[in-house]
């Protein structure tokens, strides 16, 4: 069994940028890139589910999310990063080198060991779970207003959710859209009062109360949604060309529970850059960031994690 200098978990912008930097520092990182799936929890991460990305610096004409991820992956591979298309199923952070398992989590011996571990497993947007939602993701269905709001100039669109995220996204989207309908499953918002006041005062925002989205219409892009009244059970249609899902996010941290200090919302707590509470374990990207959640901030924090890991490895090996 191999002991690597650096093992990286995750292959979104954070993991791949960490891989580029670690590879160029001659650390020959092993990247567990995940497995194909229909959620954001897959090789390449959430950008694999988007179409046009217009806010990643350096691409004046925009770039497709999957193309950006494949370019980052090639860049890391060019400098010697090695990829495995698998997911970690267990980690042991109690002693160094750290153990990482994939196929057989019950085995005594881990699949690989790493002197340093960089966690970049990301977060997933909670989804409604409708078949047409998955089909139209990136084609009118979006989980990121900051990323996609610009594409809906002058249009009538909707946001699902009643928390701060939904209201924040709705308010942001009024800068572009003609109207924004907030679809909430109850008749009372969960969001903070200040956000509620702002949303209610916004002339472009209207509300659909007690409304559950039960289907999304559209062949190649969204044309409307079917709503079901949570109280009366009545169904009605709403014509919109965009649907933003803002019902919360969940960091992919189940693997580390009990071994690593997490914040109250389950995101990994980092200290001074990318350090976690376990020496030699670093975290970057959305798995430790519930605030910015951008490809460029994830990439930036991946760079920080690789540099932190490199310095830490150098300092610890100097002691021996
Ligand atoms: P959240 O507070 O958990 O709200 C999720 C919303 O989505 C709730 O209104 C919930 O409805 C609804 N929802 C959940 N599952 C649903 C489903 N399957 N179908 C339909 N609706 C569903 O999540 P969040 O808004 O992302 O916020 C997360 C945390 O970040 C919160 O603590 C929030 O305060 C904070 N935050 C703060 C700001 C800010 O201060 N500017 C901005 C964003 C987020 P119910 O209400 O019926 O449960």
Structural key phrases:
320 residues, alpha/beta, 7-stranded mixed beta sheet, 5-stranded parallel beta sheet, 25% strand, elongated, binds NADP nicotinamide-adenine-dinucleotide phosphate
Order of helix and strand elements from N to C terminus: EHEEEHEEEEEHEHEHEHEEEEEEEH
Topology, number of strands: 19
Structural class, please? alpha/beta
Distance between the termini: 22 Å
On the 0 to 100 scale, the average pLDDT is 95
Rg: 21 Å
Helix count equals 7
Share of helix, binned: 10-25%
- What general outline do the C-alpha atoms trace? elongated
Quick summary:
25% of the residues lie in helices and 25% in strands. The protein is of the alpha/beta class.
Overview of the structural elements:
It is a single chain. The chain is of the alpha/beta class. Strands 1, 2, 5, 6, 7, 8 and 19 form a seven-stranded mixed β-sheet that branches. Helix 1 packs parallel to helix 7. The mean pLDDT is 95. It binds NADP nicotinamide-adenine-dinucleotide phosphate (NAP). NADP nicotinamide-adenine-dinucleotide phosphate (NAP) binds next to helix 5.
